[in-house]
Write a structure and sequence with these properties.
The chain has 179 residues and is α/β, with parallel strands linked by helices. Helix content is 28%, strand content 23%. It has 3 helices and 9 strands. The longest helix is centred in the first third of the chain and has 32 residues, at 2-33. The chain starts with a helix and ends in an 11-residue tail after the last strand.
């Protein structure tokens, strides 16, 4: 009889250990199932690319943001469409801040000698200023006003006079690019 008690005790102990392992497994599995998915990381709208002194900058290398400062409704979108048609990268569109009001057009750049800003200004006609002002938007920001008539064909390239960083749009892959 003593032998049966020991075997029964061992069986009970084995079952208890297996129950603890089972409960630990369920707890672990439940924590994995209820864990939130990883956050999606937003890709940067553009990449700062070094343009060395003497290198050319062309429209496809320049991301543009267009702000409307009191022109007709849709002026920023219309201007963006024109600039994208000339090969510029599409950034944001929106309304300019209060009292930013250029009568025609301004290019906002942290460095007025920025080759991307100079290139972009050539597409905005003759009544355009390059203003030493950052905007917080991706790429080079232009602000268009009441007298802005629309984008015109500008220079094909601008040669950088110093080492500069240009916010270049991401490469897009289309079915044609894939082969």
């Amino acid at each position: 009889m003593e032998l049966d008690v020991r075997q029964g005790g061992r069986s009970a102990m084995t079952l208890a250990v297996l129950a603890v392992i089972f409960l630990a497994g369920i707890t672990w599995a439940w924590s994995r199932v209820t864990e939130p998915f990883p956050e999606k990381v937003e890709a940067a709208p553009c990449t700062d690319t070094l343009i060395r002194e003497g290198e050319d900058v062309a429209p496809p290398q320049v991301m543009v943001t267009v702000l409307n400062a009191g022109g007709a409704n849709g002026l920023a979108s219309k201007t963006m469409d024109q600039l994208v048609g000339f090969g510029f990268g599409e950034g944001d569109t929106g309304n300019g801040p209060a009292n930013s009001g250029p009568v025609s057009a301004q290019v906002w750049a942290k460095d007025p000698g920025d080759p991307a800003a100079i290139l972009l200004a050539s597409y905005l006609g003759t009544d355009v200023d390059i203003v030493d002002q950052g905007s917080g938007y991706p790429g080079v920001t232009i602000v268009v006003g009441k007298r802005f008539k629309g984008a015109v064909e500008g220079r094909e390239t601008v040669t950088s006079q110093t080492d500069s960083y240009v916010c270049t749009p991401p490469l897009s892959s289309t079915p044609d690019d894939l082969g």
